[in-house]
Amino acid sequence: MHSNIEHRTSQIIFGDVSKFYGEILGVNRVSLAIAPGITSLVGPNGSGKTTLMNLMTGLIQPTRGRISILGISPDNPQELFSKVGYCGQFDSFPKGMTGYEFVKSFLRVHGYSNKVADEKTWRAIERVDLIEAAHRKVAGYSKGMRQRIRLAQSIAHDPVVMILDEPLNGLDPMARAETIRLFRQLAKEGLHLIVSSHILHEVNVMSDRVVLINNGYILAEGGVTGVREEMEEHPMQIMIRCDLPQDLAARIFASDSVVEAQLHRDKQGLFIRTRNAEAFYLLLNRIVVESGMNIEAVAPVDDDLNAVYQYLIGSNGGGQA
Fold first, then answer.
1. What is the 3-state secondary structure (H, E, C) of the chain?
2. What is the CA radius of gyration of the chain?
Protein backbone atom coordinates (compact mmCIF):
# COMPACT_ATOMS: atom_id res chain seq x y z
CA MET A 1 0.00 0.00 0.00
CA HIS A 2 2.83 2.35 0.92
CA SER A 3 4.61 1.88 -2.43
CA ASN A 4 1.33 2.50 -4.28
CA ILE A 5 0.87 5.83 -2.46
CA GLU A 6 4.48 6.82 -3.26
CA HIS A 7 3.89 5.95 -6.92
CA ARG A 8 0.78 8.15 -7.07
CA THR A 9 2.51 11.07 -5.35
CA SER A 10 5.42 10.98 -7.82
CA GLN A 11 3.16 11.37 -10.86
CA ILE A 12 0.69 13.77 -12.42
CA ILE A 13 -2.61 11.91 -12.68
CA PHE A 14 -5.65 12.62 -14.84
CA GLY A 15 -8.51 10.26 -13.98
CA ASP A 16 -11.25 10.28 -16.62
CA VAL A 17 -11.16 14.09 -16.84
CA SER A 18 -13.52 16.07 -19.06
CA LYS A 19 -13.97 19.81 -19.43
CA PHE A 20 -16.85 21.44 -21.28
CA TYR A 21 -17.34 25.16 -21.84
CA GLY A 22 -21.11 25.15 -21.98
CA GLU A 23 -21.77 22.83 -24.91
CA ILE A 24 -18.26 23.24 -26.32
CA LEU A 25 -15.79 20.43 -25.67
CA GLY A 26 -12.43 21.35 -24.13
CA VAL A 27 -11.09 17.86 -23.38
CA ASN A 28 -12.96 14.59 -23.04
CA ARG A 29 -12.31 11.51 -20.88
CA VAL A 30 -8.58 12.09 -20.42
CA SER A 31 -6.76 9.45 -18.37
CA LEU A 32 -3.01 9.96 -18.05
CA ALA A 33 -0.19 9.21 -15.63
CA ILE A 34 2.78 11.50 -16.27
CA ALA A 35 6.14 10.53 -14.76
CA PRO A 36 9.19 12.80 -14.23
CA GLY A 37 11.01 13.98 -17.34
CA ILE A 38 9.85 16.03 -20.33
CA THR A 39 6.38 15.28 -21.65
CA SER A 40 5.27 17.20 -24.73
CA LEU A 41 1.60 17.86 -25.40
CA VAL A 42 1.42 17.95 -29.17
CA GLY A 43 -1.45 19.07 -31.34
CA PRO A 44 -2.73 21.87 -33.56
CA ASN A 45 -4.13 25.11 -32.18
CA GLY A 46 -7.46 24.51 -30.47
CA SER A 47 -6.75 20.82 -29.84
CA GLY A 48 -7.01 21.04 -26.05
CA LYS A 49 -3.38 21.50 -24.97
CA THR A 50 -3.96 24.74 -23.08
CA THR A 51 -7.12 23.35 -21.48
CA LEU A 52 -5.10 20.44 -20.05
CA MET A 53 -2.49 22.85 -18.70
CA ASN A 54 -5.09 25.16 -17.16
CA LEU A 55 -6.69 22.14 -15.48
CA MET A 56 -3.30 21.15 -14.02
CA THR A 57 -2.78 24.60 -12.54
CA GLY A 58 -6.31 24.92 -11.16
CA LEU A 59 -7.07 27.93 -13.37
CA ILE A 60 -10.15 26.05 -14.52
CA GLN A 61 -12.03 23.17 -12.90
CA PRO A 62 -12.92 19.88 -14.61
CA THR A 63 -16.54 19.18 -15.48
CA ARG A 64 -15.90 15.65 -14.25
CA GLY A 65 -12.99 13.46 -13.18
CA ARG A 66 -10.07 14.03 -10.83
CA ILE A 67 -6.59 15.52 -11.15
CA SER A 68 -3.63 14.99 -8.82
CA ILE A 69 -0.32 16.84 -9.10
CA LEU A 70 2.16 14.73 -7.09
CA GLY A 71 -0.64 13.95 -4.66
CA ILE A 72 -1.86 17.57 -4.50
CA SER A 73 -5.27 18.61 -5.78
CA PRO A 74 -5.44 21.74 -7.97
CA ASP A 75 -8.20 22.82 -5.55
CA ASN A 76 -5.40 23.60 -3.07
CA PRO A 77 -3.67 26.56 -4.80
CA GLN A 78 -1.33 27.55 -1.97
CA GLU A 79 0.24 24.10 -1.70
CA LEU A 80 0.06 23.53 -5.45
CA PHE A 81 1.99 26.67 -6.42
CA SER A 82 4.75 25.93 -3.91
CA LYS A 83 5.48 22.91 -6.15
CA VAL A 84 4.45 24.14 -9.61
CA GLY A 85 5.98 26.66 -12.00
CA TYR A 86 3.76 27.94 -14.80
CA CYS A 87 4.66 29.83 -17.95
CA GLY A 88 1.55 30.56 -20.01
CA GLN A 89 1.15 31.99 -23.51
CA PHE A 90 0.07 35.50 -22.54
CA ASP A 91 2.85 38.05 -22.98
CA SER A 92 1.88 40.79 -20.50
CA PHE A 93 3.86 42.54 -17.78
CA PRO A 94 3.23 45.22 -15.14
CA LYS A 95 3.99 48.63 -16.63
CA GLY A 96 7.47 50.03 -16.00
CA MET A 97 8.85 46.90 -14.34
CA THR A 98 12.39 45.63 -14.97
CA GLY A 99 13.15 41.96 -15.53
CA TYR A 100 14.70 41.72 -12.06
CA GLU A 101 11.66 43.32 -10.44
CA PHE A 102 9.30 41.05 -12.38
CA VAL A 103 10.92 37.90 -11.00
CA LYS A 104 11.60 39.19 -7.49
CA SER A 105 8.08 40.54 -6.93
CA PHE A 106 6.70 37.09 -7.70
CA LEU A 107 8.98 35.55 -5.05
CA ARG A 108 8.03 38.18 -2.48
CA VAL A 109 4.35 37.33 -3.05
CA HIS A 110 5.31 33.71 -2.39
CA GLY A 111 6.51 34.83 1.06
CA TYR A 112 10.29 34.74 0.61
CA SER A 113 12.35 37.26 2.57
CA ASN A 114 13.98 40.09 0.66
CA LYS A 115 17.41 38.44 0.88
CA VAL A 116 16.28 34.97 -0.22
CA ALA A 117 14.11 36.46 -2.99
CA ASP A 118 17.12 38.41 -4.26
CA GLU A 119 19.31 35.29 -4.34
CA LYS A 120 16.69 33.20 -6.10
CA THR A 121 15.97 35.99 -8.59
CA TRP A 122 19.58 36.26 -9.71
CA ARG A 123 19.95 32.48 -9.93
CA ALA A 124 16.86 32.19 -12.14
CA ILE A 125 17.89 35.11 -14.36
CA GLU A 126 21.34 33.60 -14.78
CA ARG A 127 19.83 30.27 -15.84
CA VAL A 128 18.01 31.98 -18.72
CA ASP A 129 21.06 34.12 -19.62
CA LEU A 130 19.54 37.56 -18.99
CA ILE A 131 21.97 38.94 -16.37
CA GLU A 132 23.00 41.92 -18.52
CA ALA A 133 19.37 42.90 -19.22
CA ALA A 134 18.06 42.31 -15.68
CA HIS A 135 17.76 46.00 -14.76
CA ARG A 136 16.27 47.06 -18.09
CA LYS A 137 12.51 47.55 -18.41
CA VAL A 138 10.72 44.53 -19.79
CA ALA A 139 8.84 46.82 -22.20
CA GLY A 140 12.15 47.28 -24.05
CA TYR A 141 12.88 43.56 -24.33
CA SER A 142 12.65 41.62 -27.58
CA LYS A 143 9.98 38.94 -27.82
CA GLY A 144 12.55 36.24 -27.11
CA MET A 145 13.85 38.08 -24.03
CA ARG A 146 10.31 38.52 -22.71
CA GLN A 147 9.77 34.79 -23.14
CA ARG A 148 12.96 34.03 -21.21
CA ILE A 149 12.17 36.38 -18.30
CA ARG A 150 8.77 34.72 -17.94
CA LEU A 151 10.57 31.39 -17.88
CA ALA A 152 12.92 32.75 -15.18
CA GLN A 153 9.90 33.70 -13.08
CA SER A 154 8.42 30.23 -13.44
CA ILE A 155 11.59 28.46 -12.20
CA ALA A 156 12.65 31.00 -9.54
CA HIS A 157 10.91 29.32 -6.58
CA ASP A 158 12.49 25.91 -7.38
CA PRO A 159 9.31 24.05 -8.38
CA VAL A 160 9.22 20.29 -8.93
CA VAL A 161 6.65 20.55 -11.74
CA MET A 162 6.98 22.94 -14.69
CA ILE A 163 3.96 23.61 -16.93
CA LEU A 164 5.09 25.47 -20.04
CA ASP A 165 2.69 26.55 -22.79
CA GLU A 166 4.62 26.98 -26.08
CA PRO A 167 7.74 28.14 -24.16
CA LEU A 168 10.01 28.28 -27.23
CA ASN A 169 7.85 30.74 -29.18
CA GLY A 170 9.78 33.81 -30.25
CA LEU A 171 13.24 32.45 -29.42
CA ASP A 172 16.00 32.63 -32.00
CA PRO A 173 17.79 29.34 -32.80
CA MET A 174 20.62 29.94 -30.28
CA ALA A 175 18.24 30.84 -27.43
CA ARG A 176 16.00 27.92 -28.40
CA ALA A 177 18.91 25.48 -28.15
CA GLU A 178 19.99 26.94 -24.78
CA THR A 179 16.43 26.74 -23.44
CA ILE A 180 16.06 23.12 -24.52
CA ARG A 181 19.37 22.43 -22.78
CA LEU A 182 17.97 24.02 -19.61
CA PHE A 183 14.85 21.87 -19.86
CA ARG A 184 16.99 18.74 -20.20
CA GLN A 185 19.00 19.78 -17.13
CA LEU A 186 15.84 20.38 -15.09
CA ALA A 187 14.51 16.95 -16.13
CA LYS A 188 17.84 15.40 -15.12
CA GLU A 189 17.36 16.99 -11.69
CA GLY A 190 14.10 15.01 -11.37
CA LEU A 191 11.51 17.61 -12.38
CA HIS A 192 8.31 17.02 -14.30
CA LEU A 193 8.18 19.29 -17.36
CA ILE A 194 4.91 19.46 -19.27
CA VAL A 195 5.54 21.36 -22.49
CA SER A 196 3.07 22.16 -25.25
CA SER A 197 4.36 22.42 -28.79
CA HIS A 198 3.22 22.09 -32.37
CA ILE A 199 6.80 22.02 -33.73
CA LEU A 200 7.95 18.50 -34.55
CA HIS A 201 11.66 19.32 -34.35
CA GLU A 202 11.32 20.67 -30.80
CA VAL A 203 9.40 17.60 -29.70
CA ASN A 204 12.01 15.31 -31.20
CA VAL A 205 14.96 17.09 -29.58
CA MET A 206 13.70 17.59 -26.04
CA SER A 207 10.97 15.10 -25.16
CA ASP A 208 11.05 11.84 -23.26
CA ARG A 209 7.46 11.15 -24.27
CA VAL A 210 4.65 12.76 -26.21
CA VAL A 211 0.91 13.00 -25.71
CA LEU A 212 -0.93 13.61 -28.98
CA ILE A 213 -4.19 15.50 -28.62
CA ASN A 214 -6.73 16.66 -31.17
CA ASN A 215 -10.29 17.99 -30.81
CA GLY A 216 -10.13 17.41 -27.06
CA TYR A 217 -9.26 13.71 -27.26
CA ILE A 218 -5.97 11.99 -26.47
CA LEU A 219 -5.08 10.19 -29.69
CA ALA A 220 -1.95 8.45 -28.46
CA GLU A 221 0.85 8.63 -25.92
CA GLY A 222 4.29 7.13 -25.78
CA GLY A 223 8.00 7.61 -26.39
CA VAL A 224 9.50 9.58 -29.24
CA THR A 225 11.37 6.70 -30.86
CA GLY A 226 11.00 7.01 -34.58
CA VAL A 227 10.03 10.68 -34.69
CA ARG A 228 13.33 11.43 -36.43
CA GLU A 229 12.40 8.95 -39.17
CA GLU A 230 9.08 10.74 -39.53
CA MET A 231 10.96 14.03 -39.95
CA GLU A 232 13.01 12.49 -42.77
CA GLU A 233 9.80 11.55 -44.56
CA HIS A 234 8.31 15.02 -44.02
CA PRO A 235 10.95 17.79 -44.27
CA MET A 236 10.46 20.76 -41.97
CA GLN A 237 9.79 24.16 -43.58
CA ILE A 238 11.36 27.26 -42.00
CA MET A 239 10.77 30.91 -42.88
CA ILE A 240 13.76 33.25 -42.45
CA ARG A 241 13.39 37.04 -42.65
CA CYS A 242 16.72 38.72 -43.35
CA ASP A 243 18.37 41.59 -45.21
CA LEU A 244 20.23 39.42 -47.75
CA PRO A 245 18.02 36.42 -48.55
CA GLN A 246 19.67 35.69 -51.91
CA ASP A 247 23.13 35.59 -50.32
CA LEU A 248 21.76 33.37 -47.57
CA ALA A 249 20.22 31.01 -50.12
CA ALA A 250 23.55 30.70 -51.94
CA ARG A 251 25.34 29.90 -48.67
CA ILE A 252 22.91 27.30 -47.34
CA PHE A 253 21.96 25.48 -50.52
CA ALA A 254 25.22 23.53 -50.57
CA SER A 255 24.37 22.01 -47.19
CA ASP A 256 23.24 18.38 -47.01
CA SER A 257 20.62 19.39 -44.43
CA VAL A 258 18.72 21.64 -46.87
CA VAL A 259 16.54 20.08 -49.57
CA GLU A 260 14.89 23.26 -50.92
CA ALA A 261 15.33 27.04 -50.72
CA GLN A 262 12.87 29.54 -52.18
CA LEU A 263 12.71 33.33 -52.02
CA HIS A 264 9.60 34.91 -50.53
CA ARG A 265 7.51 37.04 -52.90
CA ASP A 266 8.57 40.27 -51.16
CA LYS A 267 12.29 39.40 -51.59
CA GLN A 268 12.82 39.98 -47.86
CA GLY A 269 12.59 36.37 -46.78
CA LEU A 270 13.54 32.83 -47.61
CA PHE A 271 11.64 29.55 -47.25
CA ILE A 272 13.85 26.53 -46.70
CA ARG A 273 13.00 22.86 -46.24
CA THR A 274 15.31 20.67 -44.17
CA ARG A 275 15.44 17.04 -43.06
CA ASN A 276 17.72 17.94 -40.14
CA ALA A 277 16.59 21.13 -38.41
CA GLU A 278 19.23 20.88 -35.69
CA ALA A 279 22.06 20.80 -38.25
CA PHE A 280 20.43 23.64 -40.18
CA TYR A 281 20.15 25.89 -37.09
CA LEU A 282 23.84 25.32 -36.36
CA LEU A 283 24.68 26.16 -39.99
CA LEU A 284 22.57 29.32 -39.83
CA ASN A 285 24.32 30.50 -36.66
CA ARG A 286 27.71 29.97 -38.31
CA ILE A 287 26.66 31.89 -41.44
CA VAL A 288 25.43 34.84 -39.36
CA VAL A 289 28.72 34.99 -37.43
CA GLU A 290 30.84 34.76 -40.59
CA SER A 291 28.82 37.09 -42.85
CA GLY A 292 27.36 39.60 -40.39
CA MET A 293 24.00 39.53 -42.19
CA ASN A 294 20.97 40.66 -40.19
CA ILE A 295 18.47 37.91 -39.37
CA GLU A 296 15.15 39.44 -38.26
CA ALA A 297 13.14 36.27 -37.62
CA VAL A 298 13.39 32.49 -37.89
CA ALA A 299 10.19 30.47 -37.52
CA PRO A 300 8.99 26.97 -38.43
CA VAL A 301 6.10 27.18 -40.88
CA ASP A 302 4.14 23.96 -41.10
CA ASP A 303 5.31 20.72 -39.51
CA ASP A 304 3.17 17.78 -40.56
CA LEU A 305 1.74 16.59 -37.24
CA ASN A 306 -0.66 14.20 -38.96
CA ALA A 307 2.32 12.05 -39.93
CA VAL A 308 3.40 11.86 -36.30
CA TYR A 309 -0.15 11.04 -35.21
CA GLN A 310 -0.24 8.15 -37.63
CA TYR A 311 3.20 6.94 -36.62
CA LEU A 312 2.51 6.91 -32.88
CA ILE A 313 -1.03 5.59 -33.14
CA GLY A 314 0.24 2.75 -35.31
CA SER A 315 3.26 1.90 -33.16
CA ASN A 316 1.76 2.30 -29.68
CA GLY A 317 -1.74 0.98 -30.22
CA GLY A 318 -2.75 2.38 -26.85
CA GLY A 319 -4.35 5.68 -27.80
CA GLN A 320 -7.72 6.70 -26.51
CA ALA A 321 -10.65 7.66 -28.64
1. CHHHHHHHCCCEEEEEEEEEECCEEEEEEEEEEECCEEEEEECCCCCCHHHHHHHHCCCCCCCEEEEEECCECCCCHHHHHHHEEEECCCCCCCCCCEHHHHHHHHHHHCCCCHHHHHHHHHHHHHHCCCHHHCCCEHHHCCHHHHHHHHHHHHHCCCCCEEEEECCCCCCCHHHHHHHHHHHHHHHHCCCEEEEEECCHHHHHHHCCEEEEEECCEEEEEEECCCHHHHHHHCCEEEEEEECCHHHHHHHHCCCCCEEEEEECCCCCEEEEEECCHHHHHHHHHHHHHHHCCCEEEEEECCCCHHHHHHHHHHHHCCCCC
2. 21
| Average model confidence (pLDDT) across the chain | 82
Bridge pairing between strands 192-197 and 161-165: parallel
For the stretch 232-281, pLDDT in tens is: 555 677 888 888 888 888 888 777 778 788 888 887 888 888 877 777 87
pTM: 0.71
What domains can be seen in the chain, in order of their start residue? 2-229 (3.40.50.300), 231-310 (3.30.70.100)
Residue type at 167 in one-letter notation: P
Task: Give pLDDT, residue 101.
Answer: 96
* Residue 186: partners with Cβ closer than 8 Å, 6 or more residues away: 155, 162, 193
d(CA 66, CA 64): 7
Q: How far is CA 265 from CA 110, 129, 245, in A?
A: 51, 36, 11
Q: Is the pLDDT of residue 319 over 70?
A: no
Phi and psi angles of residue 55, each rounded to the nearest 5 degrees, phi first = -65, -40
